[in-house]
Amino acid sequence: MVDEGTKKTLQSIPLLQTRASPRDKDLWVQRLKEEFMALIKYVQSNKASDSDWFRLESNKEGTKWFGKCWYVHNLLKYEFDVEFDIPVAYPTTAPEIALPELDGKTAKMYRGGKICLTEHFKPLWSRNVPKFGIAHAMALGLAPWLAVEIPDMIEKGIITYKEKGETSS
Predict the structure, then answer these.
(1) Class for domain 4-154, per CATH?
(2) Which residues of the chain have pLDDT under 50?
(3) Quick one: pLDDT at residue 162?
(4) Domain range annotation of the chain
(5) Which CDD domains match (predicted)?
(6) To pair with 121 at 20 to 30 A between CA atoms, which of 33, 91, 98, 128?
């Protein structure tokens, strides 16, 4: 069962058609076009609903992705670097999204700051190959993870709010 909010989010993200990984050369170019279109639609939908929460960009080949994501808690914006590589077996295998600066700060994370998505997201991803892409990974993987883990880490004092320009100590 999927809640109404999740259904609405999914409806705002176009499904992808092309089954291709970076090894597939010309097909990968087609897949990347679909990925960018889905990401653009998702970001536009987020902005329209006043729930903008990430920025992503990729290297020229579309194999390494990086950017920022943020979570607002008690009217304070907590911002984190986000990164992932496209797996060789993509889209059969979902990307492993990492928030490196949170590495080791929660049990729901693997080495290198990779967030744990095995229980809920990976089975959903595997049922939707090749229709799911990067926008779906952000919406159904990273967003719920942030919503659960960030408030918990804040309440436990594991992460603290930093003003713009402040550096981590």
Answers:
(1) alpha beta
(2) 169
(3) 84
(4) 4-154
(5) UBCc_UFC1 (cd11686)
(6) 33
